[in-house]
Amino acid sequence: MTIAIVSDDTSPDESSELSPLQQLIWSYRERTGESFAAIARRAGVARQTISKVAHSNSVPRSGTLDALARGLRVPPSDVYELAARSITRRGHFGPTTGTDLSPHATQMVRLMDSLSAGDARDLLRLAQAFDEAISSAQRRAARRHLR
Q: pTM to 2 decimals?
């Protein structure tokens, strides 16, 4: 296993495909010249939180998305919309080529682009609640198995 240490000043490899949420963060930094620390102070979160979102394929929870919106000085609806689109592109549903997705998942990915910001936010919250429910059920099952 290889662990890459990435500093705040290091942008992602040019060959790596950025999610829409990552693109927002990196384009903001390019435009303003602000560090992750400055964004994090305004957002009210740790610098590592902003760095993790900028360098990670995962989509953060809604509280972090709200903080990210404050830190980047954009409406929360914009951040939620990009987060929902990030799920389809790099997160839970994988690539959008459709070649390794079921027909239903491929249709969902196509529909994501037509959602309003509010609908994208609601869908993201629903997906996060579903993910938490599954994780909770898996933890309970693991505990029962260990007994």
A: 0.59
